[in-house]
Amino acid sequence: xxxxxxxxxxxxxxxxxxxFPLVIGALLRDLNNDNASSLTLARHIENDPVLIGRILSAxxxxxxxxxxxxxxxxxxAVSLIGFSRIRHIVLTTSIxxxxxxxxxxxxxxxxxxxxxxxxxxxxxxxxxxPDHALVGGLLHDIGKLWMAYFYPLEFQKVNxxxxxxxxxxxETETAVFGMNHCEIGEIILxxxxxPPEVCEAVLLHHTPVCETGASGLVQVVxxxxxxxxxxxxxxxxxxxxxxxxxxxxxxxxxxDEWEMHGLFxxxxxxxxxxxxxxx
Amino acid sequence: MxxxxxxxxxxxxxxxxxxxxxxxxxxxxxxxxxxxxxGQALTEAHLAQLAAHHAEYACVWVSVxxxxxxxxxxxxxxxxxxxxxxxxxxxxxxxxxxAFFTHLLSFRTQACLLA
Lengths: 279, 115
Known about the structure:
The complex is a heterodimer.
Chain A: H1 7-16, H2 23-30, H3 38-46, H4 49-65, H5 74-81, H6 83-99, H7 106-125, H8 130-138, H9 142-150, H10 152-163, H11 169-177, H12 181-191, H13 196-203, H14 217-230, H15 257-277
Helix pairs in contact in A: 1-12, 2-3, 3-5, 4-5, 4-6, 5-6, 6-8, 7-8, 7-14, 7-15, 8-13, 8-14, 9-10, 9-12, 10-11, 12-13, 13-14
Chain B: E1 4-10, E2 24-28, E3 31-36, H1 44-52, E4 57-63, H2 70-86, H3 95-108
Antiparallel strand pairs in B: 1-4, 2-3
Helix pairs in contact in B: 2-3
């Protein structure tokens, strides 16, 4: 019998998932301010003892590679590594740690990492908030984690049907669960206090609309996933490229091979670099 | 003289004497902290600076093997087949989609041409 998931059930399940790092939402709110300082960033980190350990470990790995002495506190790490880099480390390591609870889904994390990085690249080119883009990309498939965690057999059933090309993914998920992973993801991220534009981007990342998404984040996450599938980051048999939406030429330099190769190349190189960082 | 392709390589694959195909421009909070022009040949000092400023990659020129070998042909055919499989449900009659296909195919086949 199919689960027939409801929004209430999604929320109840979200409370039973491994604890999501609430620092993410707080960071995105506070760092939205151009005047946000390294001190603001360090204060967020020091409120989370687990995060402190992870940040110092990541920062000291970088410092060790450069032959520099280790940082012993968060404030030193922030000043040595730099605001942008530490911010990036905080966001990606927090989400990586969260998804590490789902250890069998290594390819899931690689896909999320790739989409997060691709979102950042697209966001930079179109003057969209890079942190929102990164987090939107890293968490765009959080709904699938929910499905896999609570209904592993039904989740596998969906995957098998999609691989056999019985029906598209979201349609199959709705048939089996009553909701698709985009809808589940939006409910979860809203409950976790993430910015509305990030939640909207997760909700619509399989829907190529251009009327909503005033922040542009909807288009960014949609195209980022398309780019990562095209580049096989990582290689999965289900990867595919659908017909580009009508607004895509405004977002991709399709009339310029050098620029397109540059976009492909940056996403791919950053993925290989980051993937090595998380091994 | 060998033909060359521009490849983006992660930091740990960059080596001395590689020549930048695109400029490197690193910034932090809107301020430029490191800048190398296209055409710059990388030295140990350049690589150290890239690492110190947390660069993740650079785009460099890489030589293409002039001769077509059976291995290269097989690799090219495999990439073409893979890209066509990726577009199995896309309409390539759409000009934007076809342009994307063309760019993707040329990008993905670059690595097959290396010396």
